[in-house]
Specification:
This protein is 18% helix and 38% strand. Strands 8-9-7-11-12-13-14 form a seven-stranded parallel sheet, sandwiched between helices. A five-stranded mixed sheet has the order 18-25-24-20-22, with helices on one face. Strands 27-34-33-29-31 form a five-stranded mixed sheet, with no helix packed on it. The protein has five domains: 6-125, no CATH class; 126-176 and 189-235 and 262-435, Rossmann fold (3-Layer(aba) Sandwich); 440-533, Immunoglobulins (Immunoglobulin-like), CATH 2.60.40; 538-635, Immunoglobulin-like (Sandwich); 639-735, Immunoglobulin-like (Sandwich). A hairpin with a 4-residue loop joins strand 2 (86-92) and strand 3 (97-103). By secondary structure, it is an alpha+beta fold. It is elongated.
């Protein structure tokens, strides 16, 4: 177990921000905080023989909820990070919080947001230590573990996890029992990213009690055939942060980051605590979600005895299983923390186990005799590995009940604030499980996707144990308004059986966490499932460009794009409407788009098409679905233009200036244009060749001067006419 340093406690007092304004000191310092969202998932116990489905359902629920509720705070942090007022952001879905290093003013800003429940300091926790002692006692036999070994249960197939100072992988007892791989070791501090390491020894010592073998001459571990994984929450200076601990618990729920694999541990040991005599619920969401996944968080009760009221957090949280320490005569250890719990629940600790003069593994391949509740807790973690090997689908509540019901009552009759329910007896717990009727509820699949108004099918399985044969009624909660759920049959008879669950989705889209509950008398067992309602497959249609301008007789082209939505894979047929046949015809290449893609729309205008703007509706059809987009075709009016070249000619008297007058066609104009010249100097004359001009075409204009032609600069104006149409062009004549 560990203690918070006094400095940390003072910081917690100074920086607590439960939704109130925070008067930031000057200057505005950086602070490490945990931003806790107001909305927290409170899952029921998840029971399923299929651990993969169980873990995947829980993780999806937690991730979706965190993504939705953290969005505003994370957006604000992103903006402030761009301003240099935030240096790190660590989203946490297991506890729906955000670890961050921010300016104090930003922390105050976050605390005022409506979705934020509290802004807490990212507390520092000191690494634990154990007390060395004299010769070891047969503590493993004291908890009756060898009796289960004789039945063939040594922890095979089970995985125990440690949240501690790490584990020394060089120890031969532990090296062969490491699960191995990237999903079996995590250092949130980043100092030892790939290889299990322990520079203090505490984590190595507690791990030996859980899974150690007999390489040193005697069996030191309760579950010697189990495998282990570990989170090194304490850095090489012996300190842990709240963010690092949250990250550790989050990693334990999904070590490889793939919800489709069931690589979470079966039990997690925590031989550390914060200060005694107070109640901190900072880690309650983490512990609650571990229990929902069927993972009991076992804690050392603390070494703050023998005074009453010395419980420590998080061990005194309702979701934790606090373990006190006894010696080989089942006498409570003087150092073992006593109840009542500062968090209010009845009894502290819940259980006791051997914790005095415990022989276990140590650094560098050695062994150590040590004492402390840190050594008592891993006895219970190892015992759970044995029990879960016998019955893998046990809920966390059922696991704890088995431990307490099988415990050897010590001290005053019944549970008390020194021994709890008594000293661990794993054989008695096993026998209690076998003889006590119970049932579990499982669902497959754990998640389903449908469309608004569509249906999703699940199979709910009720499995009895311990001779259970009663009827189990089924119910469902968590479905949004407008949805319905039907069980067939609604009651599973005889203690075991299946029921088909049909869920009709509401009209609204989104993800919902469903809780399926089986009830028999006063006993309830639940399992989580999820329903995701997505919009039906669809598509959109767009045109580029939206408008084209052409002359009559020309071709206008557009790109028509079809984009799939929600997995649409159908064929989309393209048609065009609204285009008068006298204006032109429309064709598509291709005329059918498969799923999504592009097609070219070509509009070939008629040579005689009237000028104007024409809207054309492009319709994209696929079965009952249809979408349209409008493009515009602009046909230029029929017209002509007149140009003269060169723009200027200089001649002396008696010389002739020759110009070319061009008539160009606009909008398919092909009429005859008569040309007329004005602005000639006095005593000069003009002659035409090719006038009138059939557009498009040209004519030659010659201006002849004489010796009597006036000198100067003259602007010649050529006018072209065709019925009501007329256009002009000018050129310059210089007579020297």
């Amino acid at each position: 177990m560990v203690r918070c340093r006094p400095l940390v406690i003072a910081m917690v007092t100074a920086l607590g921000l439960s939704g109130t304004a925070w008067a930031a000191p000057q200057p505005d310092p950086f602070v490490d905080v945990i931003v806790v969202m107001k909305s927290q998932v409170v899952p029921g116990p998840v029971v399923s023989p299929d651990r993969r489905e169980r873990l995947r359902s829980l993780e999806k629920t937690l991730r979706d909820h965190a993504t939705r509720t953290q969005r505003g705070a994370r957006d604000l942090l992103a903006v402030r990070r761009g301003q240099g007022r935030v240096t790190s952001v660590v989203p946490l879905w297991i506890t729906n919080a955000i670890g961050a290093r921010v300016r104090a003013s930003v922390a105050a800003e976050l605390a005022r947001r409506p979705e934020v429940g509290a802004v807490r300091p990212d507390s520092t926790i000191q690494a634990p230590a154990v007390t060395t002692a004299s010769a070891a006692e047969p503590n493993v036999a004291q908890v009756n573990a060898p009796a289960l070994w004789d039945l063939g249960y040594r922890g095979q197939g089970m995985v125990v996890a440690s949240m501690d100072t790490g584990v020394d992988l060089s120890h031969p007892e532990l090296a062969v029992r490491w699960r191995g791989g990237a999903n079996s070791w995590y250092d949130p501090n980043g100092q030892h990213p790939s290889t299990p390491t322990d520079v203090f020894g505490h984590g190595t010592q507690t791990m030996g009690v859980m899974v150690g073998g007999d390489g040193g001459g005697t069996s030191v571990g309760v579950a010697p055939d189990a495998r282990w994984i570990a989170v090194k929450i304490f850095n090489d200076r012996g300190q842990a942060t709240s963010t690092g601990i949250h990250l550790g618990y989050q990693w334990l729920l999904d070590p490889d980051g793939n919800p489709a694999t069931a690589d979470a541990p079966n039990v997690v040991n925590n031989s550390w605590t914060m200060a005694a005599g107070s109640c901190s619920l900072d880690f309650q969401p983490d512990l609650r979600n571990l229990r929902a996944a069927g993972i009991v968080p076992v804690f050392a009760a603390g070494n703050y005895g023998p005074t009453a009221g010395t419980s420590a957090s998080p061990a005194n949280n309702p979701e934790a299983l606090a373990v006190g320490s006894v010696d080989d005569t089942d006498t409570i250890a003087p150092f073992s923390s006593r109840g009542p719990s500062a968090c209010g629940q009845a009894g502290y600790p819940q259980l006791v186990a051997p914790g005095t003069d415990i022989r276990t593994t140590d650094l560098y391949g050695g062994y150590l005799d040590a004492s402390g509740t840190s050594l008592a807790a891993p006895h219970v973690a190892g015992a759970l590995a044995l029990l879960l090997q016998t019955m893998p689908g046990l809920t966390a509540d059922r696991q704890v009940s088995a431990l307490q019901q099988g415990a050897v009552d010590l001290g005053p009759a019944g549970a008390d604030n020194s021994y709890g329910s008594g000293r661990l007896d794993v054989l008695a717990s096993y026998n209690w499980l076998r003889s006590t009727p119970d049932f579990a509820v499982a669902v497959a699949p754990s998640s389903a996707t449908t469309q608004p108004g569509g249906s999703a099918q699940y199979t709910v399985t009720v499995s009895g144990s311990g001779g259970f044969s009663d009827d189990v009624g089924l119910s469902l909660t968590g479905l949004p308004a407008g949805g319905t759920a039907t069980f067939d049959p609604p009651v599973v008879t005889g203690g075991s059986g299946t029921s088909s669950l049909t869920v009709v989705a509401p009209a609204t889209t989104g993800s919902s966490a469903l809780t399926i509950t089986g009830t028999s008398g006063t006993t309830t067992r639940s399992v989580l499932a999820s329903l995701t309602v997505v919009p039906p497959p669809d598509y959109t249609v767009a045109a580029t460009p939206s408008s084209r301008t052409v002359s009559a007789g020309a071709v206008a082209t557009y790109t028509i794009g079809v984009s799939a939505l929600n997995g649409f894979t159908g064929d989309v047929t393209l048609t065009a409407g609204g285009l008068p046949t006298a204006v032109g015809t429309a064709t598509f290449s291709p005329a059918v788009v498969h799923g999504e893609g592009t097609a070219q729309l070509s509009i070939t205008t008629q040579a005689a098409a009237a000028s104007g703007s024409y809207p054309v509706t492009v319709t994209a059809s696929s079965g009952a679905l249809g979408h349209a987009v409008t493009v515009t075709l602009v046909v230029n009016p029929r017209d002509f233009a007149v140009t003269i070249s060169p723009a200027s000619i200089s001649v002396t008297r008696t010389q002739t200036a020759t110009y070319t007058v061009a008539v160009s066609s606009i909008g398919g104009f092909n009429g005859s244009v008569s040309l007329k010249i004005t602005g000639l100097p006095v005593n000069s004359s003009a002659t035409w060749t090719g006038n009138p001009v059939v557009a498009p075409g040209w004519a030659t204009l010659k201006v002849k001067t004489t010796s009597a032609t006036a000198r100067g600069t003259f602007t010649l104006k050529v006018t072209g006419t065709n019925t009501s149409l007329g256009h002009q062009a000018t050129a310059t004549l210089v007579v020297r």
